Known about the structure:
This protein is of the alpha/beta class. It contains 11 helices and 15 strands. Helix content is 32%, strand content 27%.
Amino acid sequence: MTSPPVAADLAIETSALTKRFGSQTAVDGIDLAVPRGAVFGFLGPNGSGKTTTIRMLLGLLRPTEGDARVLGSRMPQALDDVLPRVGALVEGPAFSPYLTGEQNLRRFDAADRHAPAATRAARVAEALERVGLSQAAAKKAHAYSLGMKQRLGLANAMLMPRELLVLDEPTNGLDPQGTREVRALIRSFAADGTTVFVSSHLLAEVEQLCTHVAVMSSGSLVAQGTLEEFRRSGGRRRAEVRTPDTESARTVLESLGVNVERQVAASDLDLVSGVMPDDLAPEAVVAALVGAGVRVRGFEAVGASLEQRFVELTGEGFDVVA
Length: 322
């Protein structure tokens, strides 16, 4: 994995961040580096220390040892300066069930001393519209579905302009439609330039959202980098060619240094695959195949899957959702 960015380019930076509860070490000396503008997936099995880390980043827990900086300022010392620039959804939204969605947002907005009262109504209306809840603004929160409550939580997190959005398991417990809705909202926040830090144990969430990842295991940080680096670090890439000209494809691949391991018959469209040299570009493989007259019906350079990498790093499997 590449070296982390310099401090000025980081939305979150920790150094030897540690939290102990009595004799139990929940977070053990982690060094996080979250680039500004990234959608950063903070991964790990349940109980790996993700939520404890988030609580320290937000100033809700004081570290036992080490240092955490959020938007360039040390936490929790700079709490008053940092928190108005951070939106957070941690352990699910908590709303008054017998207030409407709009009333709940007005209540939270009024509690923010940095939020001007004169523009509150417009701000709440805009937040509700952005998350698709304008038509449900007058409905009481207890009548909201779980997906609607998550969207209301995101609206609350983004009532004021935020430089950083911290989300702890934002799609936890949602049905596929609710999951897609929340993903779309997160993408829209990122497109506006907000750094998004997403804690999750769900593979699909990470693959579809994140530009960068970090993996926690038993309180330790075991890997971090871009999503592509994370995939590649699991081992060498494989070339997979679908073609009716299997023998010619094998000859070309072997001439390029590909160690052909498999040749699978599938009616008139066979699969030829093998391990690629590290310096062999996928486009060079395709060009050589086409140049040799091989009829290429499909080609893919396949790295280790996220699930494979996760298992290698933690010894545990991902929960996979659609």
